[in-house]
Amino acid sequence: MRPFATIALFALTCGRAFAQADDAGIVFEAVSIKPFAEGTTITMSGCMGGPGSDDPGRINCEYTTLRMLLTRAYQVKSQEIFGPGWLDSAHFNITAKLPQGATREQVPVMFRNLLAERFKLALHHENRVMPAYSLTVAKGGLKIKESVPAPAAAASDDAQPAGGSPPIGKDGFPILRPATIAGGPITLFRQGRARLQASNTTLATLVEALSRQLDRVVIDETGLAGKYEITLNWTPEATEPGGRPRPAASVRPEGIASQEESTPEPDLFAAMEQQLGLKLVSKKIPRDTLVIDRAEKVPTEN
């Protein structure tokens, strides 16, 4: 694979990631980008693997969009990105091989160089006041547990090989390895339902995942600095744009038995309070945003 082109110098305020002249050589060893096949069952949306996971030499992204890639590359929230409509409508499957010894901090740089080379990305930043959600502890108190160090033998006791396809549970969701969800949430979709799982993750990391599910930026104002075990189940269709719950009669997950259909998962806002003891509160905040000047909808060939 030919070397990636040098990305243009680009800086963000508020301490966010930015490209530097010496970042040009920090690239993935090899990358395959394929359009997501229409009609294929969507079981996951996002990326797994990389440094710190059980598959440190590879990152696998499924049903990902350019907007999602930009959040990883520039360490911003999805609502802070402004560009063409296809940022959300064009989906890709990406497999990236990392060079030996690559660090977690180098991964965003690799994604920035990937976007510059394969999508011909050019962008700038603007300051804007935006509607947001503040993550706070709900009145009933926190319901999630802090993480504890796992025994060293735990990984070897897991029957699922690293990098392999996870088995499917009785509820239709893949059973993810603890190491797979360590440090960062993975969001899964199945038959009109959604599940977010994370192990040993901070609430600051959780709000990044929540921002991808909502139409607003989510900021962490809980004041909690611990790392937690998180499982959140909800019905995506139960929440309209803007965070308004849909009428209960309109919520009917497909392919679920009649007993389950009568008691669907709650919308995201209710699920947060009921299952995690966390609440989302509306507010407005100033943000430094990304504006896409140019990007190719069809990336260059592998």
Short précis:
This protein is α+β, with helices and mostly antiparallel strands and 302 residues long.
Notes on the structure:
- The chain has 302 residues and is of the alpha+beta class.
- Helix content is 18%, strand content 31%.
- The protein has seven helices and 14 strands.
- Strands 1-5-3-2-8-9-11-7 form an eight-stranded antiparallel β-sheet. A four-stranded mixed β-sheet has the order 4-14-6-10.
- α1 crosses α3.
- The radius of gyration is 19 Å and the shape is globular.
Alpha carbon gap, first and last residue: 8 Å
Individual helix count: 7
Give the fraction of residues assigned to helices.
Answer: 10-25%
Model regions low in confidence, pLDDT < 50 over at least 5 residues: 1-19, 153-159, 239-262
Topology (elements, then pairings):
Elements: E1 30-35, E2 44-49, E3 58-64, H1 66-74, E4 81-82, H2 86-89, E5 92-97, H3 107-118, E6 122-137, E7 145-146, H4 154-157, E8 186-190, E9 193-202, H5 203-213, E10 217-220, E11 227-234, E12 239-240, E13 244-245, H6 258-261, H7 268-276, E14 278-294
Parallel strand pairs: 4-14, 6-10
Antiparallel strand pairs: 1-5, 2-3, 2-8, 3-5, 6-14, 7-11, 8-9, 9-11, 12-13
Helix pairs in contact: 1-3
